[in-house]
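Input record (one chain):
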Amino acid sequence: MTRLAVLSDIHGNLPALEAVIADMAGEHFDRVVVAGDLINIGPWSREVLEAVLDRGWVVIRGNHEHYLLDRVARSPLNAHKDWAFLDFLAEQLGEAWQARLAVMPDELSLRFADAPALRVVHAAPGNPFRTVTAVTAEDEALAMLAGTDECSIVAGHYHMAFERRLATWHFINPGPVGTPHDGLQHACYAVLEGDTGGWRVEHRRLPVDASRLLAEMQRLGFVERFGLRGHIIIEQFRLARPLFVSFRRWVRQQHPGQEWSYALLDEFLHGGHLWLSLAPEYQFNRHLLDPAPIDREGADR
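The corresponding structure, as predicted from the sequence alone:
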């Protein structure tokens, strides 16, 4: 039997990664596999890369590794609001870490003597930006998997743990280590046990206190450095929701052409719009929504 620990979407959240490492202590795994998005959003991207790569884990890139590499390769760093997080990330990592990310694979085919071959991708085969979710229509999901030789597929990106059987494929998402989107402050990963009968999946959820993460973002001055966008990222971690994307969608729909402001964010969070703006695949645990008051100290940025 082959036994794997599978992780994804750490996003610079070191305390969440440490919770997973502690949970795995004392257990035997033939390999630990990380399906991309180790970096960005959270404040400890370099520390996460060190912790993962020093342990010799099997790692692929996700879309956030692509964002960084494409940002550095295509444009000089500047102060555009939409690029500020990547500029900060580039400063954190430096050229040496960027060089290591540049040669990471985007996908892997893992093959074992006693278990089915396993395709490891970040989102979908051939596409690190679009994935199968728990509620993706079957015909759409099958189109994304078409041409994949391996019948077992591991992917992240969705930030929700699940597994689905789709025609001949077994699609497994371990859930996010560092950025939950279901309102629960948990670090997720999966244990896979494989033999000639296939892969059996155990999903694990570990409660994580977000206070250390929030304190580090405050220490680094996320709001001072990134303005309103920094506040949104902090609140995204606190609420464990895809707040940034949901707020952007709501502004485009309800206030097209308007600049982001604390007034709009206040209206969004406290007017009941967050739940309605969440994509259907993230509408879980509505009772946990409890947005904090907006801190407008300083000016809109």
